[in-house]
Amino acid sequence: MSDDAEAPKKSFYIFGRDVAQIPCFRNSFLYGISGGIGVGVLAFLGTSRPHLATHIGFGSFFCGTMVYWMACRYQWSARRFEQQQLREAMRRQAMYEGTTVERELDIKSA
């Protein structure tokens, strides 16, 4: 046995999916949890009612997680779409390089 061998990473699975592989999952939950705890503590300090503060904290956790998740996934999807467009444009550029089609495109774009 060598010391260089890495231990297998332990992953958390929900419905058969590794949550470490889901984009935006980690940040969404971290921001949701911290926001829920913060708002819950502030609600308790303001009202001194633990039951109400718990409901407010959980509600802010849920809403914060969902809002951050949707915003992050939208940005991720937009970035992925742009990357696919760029990849296709680079493929076409490589295919047309040195042909008359490239010269025609250069004349049109100039």
From TrEMBL:
<dbReference type="InterPro" id="IPR022533">
    <property type="entry name" value="Cox20"/>
</dbReference>
<dbReference type="GO" id="GO:0033617">
    <property type="term" value="P:mitochondrial respiratory chain complex IV assembly"/>
</dbReference>
<keyword id="KW-0496">Mitochondrion</keyword>
<feature type="transmembrane region" description="Helical">
    <location>
        <begin position="52"/>
        <end position="71"/>
    </location>
</feature>
<keyword id="KW-0812">Transmembrane</keyword>
<dbReference type="GO" id="GO:0005743">
    <property type="term" value="C:mitochondrial inner membrane"/>
</dbReference>
<comment type="similarity">
    <text>Belongs to the COX20 family.</text>
</comment>
<keyword id="KW-0999">Mitochondrion inner membrane</keyword>
<feature type="transmembrane region" description="Helical">
    <location>
        <begin position="29"/>
        <end position="46"/>
    </location>
</feature>
<dbReference type="Pfam" id="PF12597">
    <property type="entry name" value="Cox20"/>
</dbReference>
<protein>
    <recommendedName>
        <fullName>Cytochrome c oxidase assembly protein COX20, mitochondrial</fullName>
    </recommendedName>
</protein>
<keyword id="KW-1133">Transmembrane helix</keyword>
<keyword id="KW-0472">Membrane</keyword>
